Amino acid sequence: MVIVQVVIIGAGEVGTSIAADLASDHDVVIVDIDESRIEDIKYDIDVLTLAGDGTKSSVLIEAGAVQADMVIASTDDDKTNLVICGTAETLGDPFNIARVKSAEYRRTWEQTGKAFDADFVICANLQAAGTIVDVIGLPSAVEVSSFVGGLVKMAEFDITEGSPITGQTVAEADRFDSLTFAALFRDDDLVLPQGSTIIKAGDRMVIIGSPGSVQGFAQQVAPVATPDTADDIVIVGGGEIGYHTARMLEMRDFSPKLVEQDSDRSRALAEDLPETLVMNHDPTDTDFLRRERLDEANVLVSALGSDENNMLVSVLAKRIGAKRVISLVDRSDYVQLFQEIGIDAAVSPRDVTAEEIIRFTHEKVAENIAVLEGGKAEVLELELGADSEFVGRNIREIDESVNSDVVFGAVSRRGTEVVPRGDTVLEQGDNVVIFVESEFVGQMLAMG
Description:
With 448 residues, the protein is α/β, with parallel strands linked by helices.
């Protein structure tokens, strides 16, 4: 499927992020009922804009939904997004994507694959919970993504002053055969590391490799144990994301604790989560936290309903001794703020949702994609077909022929990992995981 024309309904943070990512390589129209918001976007992003109600067929027709290849319903209201998909389906044959918060809508769609006339339904709450669980499973990581069906991991790590690898060269820190040091984000610069590159405190490092090698590197960055007992993981907040985080942890044989202030909600959670200890209490009560030994937690997840409350609980948890704190952040522009005040990892449901939608929209759709540092760079997974310009060429030759800095982080061939080296010749059917600056993603997709 080649995506050329895209109509996005909803110009909030998610819709705007998607539009900005697609603007350079696609014809994008963004629609929002808020005229002032549309007016602002005109000056920020090179896309066509339209003020109007995206649930109305007349507005969708004016936006070009009849001939569009894809319609993305990305307002903040679940039912509105599902109505948009249904309306778009009556006008043409686009690939319809609906963003929802309710896991129930996602489950309904999964039963048929076409409920609500949507070709894909992404649940922001499930995406956020999945990201939190991935980060929990990898000590010291601030972001984790899986590729090639889990055979390859990409992770970002913040390098601290006290990290054992601070001051080492990349060659000295690279103790794993199946690991690639893809990039360093240093201040506002992107550095492609060489063996002689010195790792400094404050760097954010991107690595790609097998799950075992990434796990081993995580232990090297910050030698702390992966949680393995009930006392190790505490979730604060029993809303949808907190609930799904606990449920996913139970599926991985963890037995977390969950603190929820509402008594009725606590009872419901206790019934639905048999391996989770649900405690009905105020999570800001420091005496309670110490009495229940929550201050000794290896990981505390703050999953409350507002950024302000999550910040309060996260700072309190760090102050009383929690070893690692992961917090939900609703506003994407707060992610950096949370990290600057010492929160170990901040997960934005809006960011992870936009990233999941973006992977559907690239020309010659990538198998998977991760967007890094607010869109500065991306990690792509491509399955090489017979017409790929990569097939039959070695990585060094490909690297010399492109106009951008590219790092081949991993190669999977018939389910077996091939360590990417300069003389590695790529074959048809290979799954390759590539790090590339965002402005050159189109070139990589066209070649791959």
